[in-house]
Amino acid sequence: MYNFDFEQPASVEAAVAALQAEDTLPLSGGQTLIPSMKQRLNAPAKLVSLTGIDALKGVSVDGGTLTIGAATTHATVAAEATAYPALAALAGGIGDPAVRNRGTIGGSLANNDPSACYPSAVLGTGATVVTNAREIAADDFFDGVFTTALEEGEIITAVKFPIPEKANYQKFEQPASRFALTGVFVAKTADGVRVAVTGASEEGVFRWTEAEEALSANFTPEAVDGLTASADGLISDLHGTPQYRASLIKTLTKRAVAAA
Questions:
Q1: Which residues are CB-neighbours of 93 under 8 A, at least 6 positions away?
Q2: For the domain that residue 221 is a member of, what is the CATH number?
Q3: CB neighbours (10 Å) of residue 239?
Q4: Which of 175, 179, 258, 174 is nearest to 215 (CA)?
Q5: What is the SS3 assignment for 183?
Q6: Contact at 8 Å (CB) between 169 and 184?
Q7: How do residues 176-192 score in pLDDT, each as one tens digit?
C-alpha cells in the first residue's frame, strides 16, 4: 500500500464537499476499493470515508417500503431487514462474516460488480437508489460492468425497496469468492413479476423479460419450462460456458419461484 490522505466526515454535505477535491474517491466498506489500491489498479490521493455518517446507516419500514441506508453493512441488512425476508437472506449469503461485517449495500451498488448479489435484488424488486442529488429508478441505475448512472462526486445515501408479495433469490456461487457464478432474483408484486439475473452476463445485471411475462401470467415453476435463456452475451470463463450459464438462469429461476 502507498501513502494517501484520509478524511471521515460526519455528514453527507461534508462528504460531498470533500469529494470535490481532485483525485479523491469515496470509501464505504472498502471490500473492492482497498484490494484494488493494493494492486495499484486504483491510486487515489485521498479517500473520503462514508462510514462515520450516522444518517447513512440503518434499516426502516414505512408502509410497504423498506429503506436501507447506504452505509449499512450486509450483516445488518441480514439481521434487520426482516420485513423483506428474501433480501435479508440474500445479504446473509454474501461473502463470509468478515465481508458481511465490513461491506455495505451502497458500496456494492456503486461498484456494480457483474457478479454481485445486491444489484439483482435492486433490479428484481424495482427499487429506487437515492443519492445526495436525486432518486434513480433501478432500471436506469445500472449501466454495464462496474458502471452506473452516478455522476462524479455523487454518492448513494439510501435504497428504497417496495416490499413484494413474494420473492426469492437463488445463487449458484463460485466457492472461492462466494460471488454468484449465476444468481437469479424473482419478485412478484401486484404489477407483475420481475426477474433479475446477476453473474452471467458480460454486460452485468439484467432482466429476463421472457420469464417475467410467463410468470406474470402463471407464477409457477412450470411456467418457465418452455423458455430458453439466450446464451448470447453471457460470460465464458474457466468456471462455465455461456450455454452453462444460460441453463443455470432457467434452473435458478424455477427454484426461486418454487421457494417464493
A1: 117, 169, 171, 173, 178
A2: 3.30.390.50
A3: 15
A4: 258
A5: strand
A6: yes
A7: 888 899 999 999 999 99
Same domain as 177, residue 147: no
pTM above 0.70, yes or no: yes
Nearest residue to 149 (alpha-carbon basis) of 158, 157, 140: 140
Extract the C-alpha cell encoding 196.
Answer: 433479475
Count of domains forming the chain: 3
pLDDT digits (tens, 9 = 90+) for 217-234: 999 999 999 999 999 999
Beta bridge partners of 10: none
Q: Of 138, 162, 186, at which residue does a domain stop?
A: 162
Q: Which domain holds residue 36?
A: 5-49
Q: What is the CATH number of the domain that holds 19?
A: 3.30.43.10
Q: Residue type for 180, please?
A: A
Is residue 224 within 8 A of residue 214, CB to CB? The reply is yes
Same-domain pairing of 196 and 114: no
Set of cell numbers at residue 251: 434452473
